[in-house]
Amino acid sequence: MRIQDLKPRSGSDTLRLGDSDELVIMENFGSLPQGELSLDNHGLIVICTGGMAQFDYDGQQIQLRKNDLYLYMAHSVVCNFMSSPDFNCRQIWFSRSELWNINMYGEVSLADLAYLKQHPKVHLSDEDVTLLDDYFQLLCRRMRDQKPLLYSEIVRSLVSTMMLEMLCMMRRDKEQKAQLDFLEDSTSGFHRRRLADKFMRLVEQSDGRLRRVDDFASQLNITPKYLSAIFKETMNRRPSTVIQLFTMKAIEQRLRFTDMTMQQIANDLNFPNASFFGKYFKEHAGMTPLEYRKKYHK
To answer: How would you label 79-113 residue by residue, b for 16+ Cβ within 10 Å and e otherwise?
Structure first.
């Protein structure tokens, strides 16, 4: 299943910002896709409003029940869907580019992404559910009325505020789990997680200028093989995937919000030349840097 396959394109339960797939809100979604879901450029927020669903998320079995919040991260694989007849949920689909538009990139840290990868589900309290329901109803109402001159800005502002509330709920859940982990964790497991956390901080600090796993392993005084092993164990991902994610973030930031030339960006991010930089970006974004700038430059 792809986001392009979602039907209807618009209507009472499926709302899009314009007619694009950059931001899609689904108020009632009672069915699950067949086969597998694997999105390269979109994230997905699911709030279960009734029934139960079960699926595999990058090899981890997830069960969703009423008042569970689940976040799908791009490049992950979801498959083996099952659900009860009364299952229903709300969904928010958003592209990587839309995260820039709603100003979420500056709020979400690599540590947040790491935690969400390990713990993609949060059970909401009654107060959380009421709060998010108020946001969701207002968001849907505003998306149905496209008359205001600042329609897009209003919608994005509401989505951004709603996501910030979810981020607070996730961080609260993270703190509670961290306290339990500290009490239960073995010394060796704690050491591996600290190495994984330090690797992610180094990637974030490099701002796209380092792209080899070997470089980060050297800074951690461990072998690239060991770094890959502990990251696979703690995050179920390859270190290169995280490096690529933040390299693309660094490039997109320069293309969207600066007037740097392609050569200047290539030099700033330590690419061999502008041609290599262009090929790297097109391979991961599906368009050239100039095409991306023309589409999204502020």
So the answer is: eebebeeebbbbbbbbbbbbbbbbebeeeeebeeb
